[in-house]
Write a structure and sequence with these properties.
The complex is a heterodimer of chains A (265) and B (113). Chain A is 59% helix and 15% strand. By secondary structure, chain A is an alpha+beta fold. Chain A folds into three domains: 70 residues; 59 residues; 109 residues, 2-Layer Sandwich (Beta-Lactamase), CATH 3.30.450. In chain A, α4 packs antiparallel against α8. Chain B is built from four helices and three strands; from the N terminus they run αβααββα. The model of chain B has no long low-confidence stretch (mean pLDDT 89). Classes of the chains: A alpha+beta (265), B alpha+beta (113). Chains A and B meet through α2 and α3 of A and α2 and α3 of B.
């Protein structure tokens, strides 16, 4: 009688650890004996034989473990319902929080959208930018006020109410390229690492073509977003803790309740 | 109206092949595997993992039992219980009815074409 390849046999014996422990305790010796028997009468290649054995072990281990889990869940319906409720709350809560966050970010584009449109149409109709853009010097790293910058058709700044230090910031060149084929663009602009700006850029047509950019620091919105994120996670953790705690208490109470005498017999 | 099916019906091909293999007497694991792989036994390739997982469920459901006899500590024998025999008979009847219908329809289709 042939003996199975000792290395592959030892590997298979080791791989049996993936099989559920209860079944392994009951059937390990029989499984190994079956492998010996099958190998001694094998009429096809050893490679196929061992590949098939390992694939079968992997497949059946997953199947048996899934069956065990589903059985355990069905044996404790309270935990099943808790899990389902937790899943529903999570699937509903997180998209709701993300929608709220998206709405907060969209709201941060106002009043820039309106201001950019007004400036662009007024400059296009012949008004001078010097009359429109206020002569103020807003430090963008600290100011929460909306600021305006007018660029010429080549993207060079002509007039600005917002500065970083003493320099007028310039958005990425892709913004102007985009505006040459589109009338307006909304984007989050990060001119320096700790500064994010909700910016709206508008193409200016007419006798003095160029671009107008109106922006506002997102510092306040970021603080609100952080609060929302923190609040969402705290609420989620509290709800899950309440659910799990409640389910555990209910399960313990049910286990402690004595069964009716008829059912015990 | 037809009779209600047995609670375990329909059987999976693996379960049917194992019950069929045990229908002519007690067998150990490898003998079940060999017989299930034959065309007459269902042509089902059962690896040891699938075989013993299924046997364990069949024992718990009361369709199969260990005989207690063994020719080696590592080779145990299994046999059908009365319930197992009844379920196998019911499944065989169910499959036979389906097969009859399929054959009748195939003949009718052949006559039409």
């Amino acid at each position: 009688m042939n003996r199975p390849n000792p290395i592959l046999f030892a590997l298979y014996r080791g791989a049996l650890r993936v099989y559920p422990s209860r079944l392994r305790l009951l059937y390990q010796d029989q499984m190994l004996q079956t492998v010996r028997d099958a190998d001694s009468e094998r009429s096809y290649s050893a490679l196929y034989f061992w590949l098939y054995l390992f694939a079968d072990l992997a497949k059946s281990s997953i199947k048996e473990r899934l069956l065990m889990i589903s059985k355990q869940i069905l044996a404790h319906p309270i935990f099943f319902h808790t899990f389902a409720l937790g899943l529903i709350l999570t699937l509903w809560g997180f998209p709701a929080a993300m929608t709220l966050q998206g709405a907060m970010r969209s709201a941060a584009d106002q009043p820039q959208i309106q201001m950019a449109q007004n400036y662009a149409s007024e400059i296009a109709s012949g008004k001078l930018a010097t009359d429109l853009i206020p002569t103020v010097h807003l430090d963008l790293s600290t100011s929460l006020e909306p600021f305006t910058i007018l660029y010429d058709a080549d993207g060079n700044p002509l007039r600005s109410s917002g500065y970083i230090g003493e320099a007028v910031p310039t958005p990425p060149p892709g913004v102007f390229t985009y505006l040459r084929t589109h009338p307006t663009d909304k984007f989050t602009w990060q001119p320096q690492p700790d500064l994010r700006i909700a910016a709206v850029a508008q193409r200016v047509d007419g006798t003095h073509p160029g671009f107008i950019l109106v922006g506002r620091s997102l510092t306040l919105v970021q603080q609100q977003e952080n609060q929302l994120r923190r609040g969402t996670f705290i609420t989620w953790f509290s709800l899950m803790a309440l659910l799990i705690g409640g389910a555990a208490l209910l399960n313990r109470a049910q286990s402690a309740t004595p069964r009716p005498a008829a059912a015990q017999g | 109206m037809s009779e209600p099916p047995e609670p375990h019906q329909p059987l999976t091909p693996s379960v049917f092949a194992i019950l069929l293999a045990l229908s002519d007497g007690e067998k150990h694991g490898y003998a079940i595997m060999k017989e299930a792989a034959l065309p007459a036994g269902g042509a089902i390739n059962l690896g040891p993992g699938t075989l013993y997982g299924t046997i364990d469920r069949l024992i718990r459901d009361g369709l199969v039992e260990e005989t207690g006899l063994t020719d080696d500590a590592r080779r145990r024998y299994y046999r059908l219980t009365d319930l197992g025999e009844r379920i196998l008979a019911a499944e065989t009847a169910r499959l036979s009815a389906s097969l009859r219908t399929a054959r009748t329809r195939a003949v009718a289709r052949g006559a039409r074409t």
